[in-house]
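Service request form, structural biology core

Requester: graduate student, group of Dr. S.
Request type: structure prediction, single chain
Budget code: on file
Notes: please return the result as structure tokens.

Sequence provided:
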Amino acid sequence: MNEDIGRRLREAAEAHQPDRDRMLARVHRGMGGTAVPRRPGIARSWPKVVLAGSAAAGILAVAGLAVAGSGQTAPARPDGEITLTVPTTSATPPSSSTGGSAPPPAPGHPGRTTTARPSPSSTDQAAPAGSRVSDGPLSAQGSIDPHSTVYWAQGNLTLDVAQPLTALTVEVRVAQTGGVQSTGQWQTGPADDFTVTAQESDGVVVYRWELKPGRTVPAAQQFFAVQYNHIAGTRDAGSDSYAVQATSAGGSHALQGRFSRAK
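Core staff response, request fulfilled:
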């Protein structure tokens, strides 16, 4: 039964011939009974309506074939009930948005190690790892600067002075562990206030600061730094040491200590 109905529908669809004259007559009759005033130039749009109607009739014929081929049993519309559907096109296309993420910022240069003399503020931020020793108005702590490398190192001696000093001698001894060679030394006090020397003796590089006669070290935190090259690798600073001798209004004072072992 279904195959017979499907066959008939296909035959009816193939035999169907759209009556163009009849459709145009219906459109004219419908427009003749409309009392809406027309704007000038609207007649020029009629060919578009006729083409749209023809296109719609063709679409209906193809749709009939698709229905017949799918085996649906819906009856076909009679010729007198053909409905024309003219598709409308929006004058404004749908808006489209484009987006993207801004390119990531260019990466910065990694930190570089330099043998230049650091500022006192950078030494303040480096947490000393050596043991603190004290005597009267003096206290000291020795450590290896965190900016040291596998070829070069800096030893920092932090000296806290609670009373002005009229005499001061600071000595830092760096053990000759292999390739140790002085590359400089500095202090926070004025360079003209000290006599500075550095020399190697008996397997030790000795750095020395001696306050010149008539000069005074104020009550403040003082820094003394030694710089040197060494053989490649992690250097053990456990054998490095310092000694401080000073004179204040309260008498003479002496400190001795060692630097932190790890660089």
